[in-house]
Write a structure and sequence with these properties.
- The complex is a heterodimer.
- Helix content of chain A is about 10%, strand content about 15%.
- By secondary structure, chain A is an alpha+beta fold.
- Chain A has a domain of about 70 residues: Alpha-Beta Plaits (2-Layer Sandwich), CATH 3.30.70.20.
- In chain A, the strands form two sheets. Chain A has a two-stranded antiparallel ribbon. Chain A has a two-stranded antiparallel sheet with strand order 2-3.
- Chain B is an alpha/beta fold.
- Chain B has two domains: about 240 residues, Thiamin diphosphate (ThDP)-binding fold, Pyr/PP domains (Rossmann fold, 3-Layer(aba) Sandwich), CATH 3.40.50; about 140 residues, Rossmann fold (3-Layer(aba) Sandwich), CATH 3.40.50.
- In chain B, strands 3-2-4-5-7-6-12 form a seven-stranded mixed sheet, with helices on both faces. A six-stranded mixed sheet of chain B has the order 9-11-10-13-14-15, with helices on both faces. Chain B has a two-stranded antiparallel ribbon with strand order 1-8.
- In chain B, helix 2 links the parallel strand 2 and strand 3.
- In chain B, helix 1 packs across helix 2, helix 6 crosses helix 9 and helix 10 packs across helix 13.
- The longest helix of chain B is centred in the last third of the chain and has 19 residues.
- Chain B is globular.
- Classes of the chains: A alpha+beta, B alpha/beta.
- Chains A and B meet through loops of A and helix 8 of B.
- Bound molecules: iron/sulfur cluster (SF4) (2 copies).
- The site of one iron/sulfur cluster has 13 residues of chain A, from helix 2.
- Chain A: Keywords: 4Fe-4S, Electron transport, Iron, Iron-sulfur, Metal-binding, Pyruvate, Repeat, Transport.
- Chain A: Heterotetramer of one alpha, one beta, one delta and one gamma chain.
């Protein structure tokens, strides 16, 4: 996210943010300790994972599968819990 | 010099007049003793069409301040007022307009805190608000209640200030007492408080985000910016008071003195009891004691420089607190000691507590403080522990 290097003199009065919607640049993916992995073969493309994701970071790809954006995915596991086909498994993040 | 007319007004009505003449756009307040008459008078003015403002009948002080924050963020000139428990309920929201740099103006009719339940005056509620980063000042009489509320708008809305501002008037002593005072011409007040424009307002055509989330990587920078900006309001406050003085003929400064010429001892007070202290100083002067009075007009930001200047020639400073910082003593006294530490090692500072929960402070008690403080200095010099005395409190113990 932008802003990490800002000094106090760089801030707008009252810490007003003048760039609308810049929260989208805030990375929440690094909060994750587990990542969701989907088995495409058994997925029925119902979209329930997309509906339940509290981070709203799941999107439908060109083939109709639902993919998590790992820049935002916090690894909460709700998608895995809600998937009616149990095709999502939560896999521990490893040091890269 | 201003014309104006002399009227007899209750302190609460004097405040309401100031808000009316400032042409406030939004008033959100919840009535609580002893501030109630301010809210009642303002709602009457709005209902009668004497003030073209939106009066929001909120269900609590927490909501009152929340509504003020929203209205101020939209660029409105706003007003609220409270007292005692009401200020405590408002407390959570009080930090928001100051951190967001919104020029909300408020009046506090100072009241003791429960328990036991007390609607009467002391400064316990004020002391709980020390760190909210609002500019705070004390009025001693109804004229000052009017003048300082008027100035509060100019100060808060100044582009170099943009901090919420609170005027303290002692509950009942000012809020419910009718005094004669000069009510200036409306046009003159309107000229003194022109319309203002905040650099950032809620505007769909120019969207901004206010009151954002501040993760650890930026939060300390926001607080540093706030602290520096708050410190830097001092010269502007004086400048605006000077301008007020030129137009209206009444002059204010952060630290005001009374009979300080040649004084070796001074009493220090805030608020309405300063006028009683003046009478005590008169009597002590007549008795040949070199005593004067220092009145702290500006409470936040703390006027370090002016205070050091005021105590320059003193041997003894006698500080009155109308609140207790439990386990610490008198809060004003501790702050003064900290403000003067390393600056005046030879100056003795002795604190007293009086006037809790509306107990009157008499002239004789101020005189007692001056005499007793000199005895306490001797005890301090003998290396004895001197505790903060609560004036006039009954010992009992004979049951
Ligand atoms: S793990 Fe949580 S945040 Fe990540 S995609 Fe699944 S529901 Fe969304
Ligand atoms: S909830 Fe399961 S089955 Fe449904 S789209 Fe998501 S991954 Fe596929």
């Amino acid at each position: 996210m932008g802003g990490e290097g800002l000094g106090w003199k760089d801030l707008e009065i009252g810490f007003v943010v003048t760039e609308p919607g810049n929260a989208s640049s805030y990375k929440t993916g690094d909060w994750r300790s587990e990542r969701p992995i989907r088995e495409n073969e058994r997925c029925i493309k119902c979209g329930l994972c997309y509906i339940y994701c509290p981070e709203a970071c799941i999107h439908e790809d060109e083939e109709g599968y639902f993919e998590a954006d790992l820049y935002y995915c916090k690894g909460c596991g709700i998608c895995a819990h809600e998937c009616p086909r149990s095709v999502i498994s939560m896999v521990e993040e490893k040091e890269e | 010099m201003t014309k104006g007319k002399i009227v007899g007004l209750e302190g609460s009505f004097a405040v309401a007049e100031a808000v009316r003449m400032a042409n406030a756009d939004v008033i959100a307040a919840y009535p609580i003793t002893p501030q109630t008459h301010i809210v009642e008078r303002l709602s009457e003015m709005v209902a009668d069409g004497d003030l073209d403002a939106d009066f929001i009948c909120v269900e609590s002080e927490h909501s009152a301040m929340s509504a003020c924050v929203g209205a101020s963020a939209a660029g409105a000139r706003v007003f609220t007022c409270s007292a005692g428990q009401g200020l405590e309920l408002m407390h959570e929201v009080l930090y928001i307009p100051s951190s967001m740099r919104l020029p909300v103006v408020a009046v506090a009719a100072n009241r003791a805190l429960s328990a036991p339940l007390s609607v009467w005056c002391d400064h316990s509620d004020v002391m709980a608000l020390r760190d909210i980063s609002w500019i705070q000042m004390f009025a001693e009489n109804n004229q000052q209640a009017f003048d300082l509320t008027t100035c509060a708008y100019r100060i808060a809305e100044d582009k170099d200030v943009l901090f919420p501002t609170m005027v303290h008037i002692d509950g009942f002593y000012l809020s419910h007492v009718i005094e004669d005072m000069v009510l200036p011409e409306e046009e003159e007040v309107a000229g003194f408080i022109p319309d203002y424009e905040h650099p950032f307002v809620l505007d769909p055509d120019k969207p901004v985000s206010m009151g954002c989330y501040g993760p650890p990587f930026i939060y300390p920078e926001t607080k540093k910016a706030q602290d520096v900006a708050f410190d830097n309001t001092r010269p502007k406050i004086q400048e605006i008071w000077d301008e007020f003085g030129e137009i209206f003929g009444r002059h204010y400064s952060p630290v005001e003195s009374y009979k300080m010429d040649g004084a070796r001892i001074a009493l220090l007070t805030m608020g309405s009891c300063s006028e009683t202290a003046m009478l005590a100083v008169d009597e002590l002067r007549e008795a040949g004691i070199d005593v004067g009075l220092i009145r702290l007009r500006l409470w936040r930001p703390f006027p370090f420089k002016e205070l050091r200047e005021a105590v320059k020639q003193l041997d003894l400073l006698v500080v009155l607190d109308r609140a207790i910082s439990f386990g610490m003593g008198g809060p004003v006294c501790s702050e003064l000691k900290s403000a003067l530490y390393n600056k005046r090692e030879d100056l003795k500072i002795v604190g007293f507590i009086a006037g809790l929960g509306g107990r009157d402070i008499q002239i004789s008690e101020f005189k007692y403080m001056v005499t007793q403080a000199q005895e306490k200095v001797k005890a301090i010099e003998r290396g004895e522990e001197v505790e903060t005395e609560i004036i006039g409190v009954r010992e009992g113990g004979g049951r």
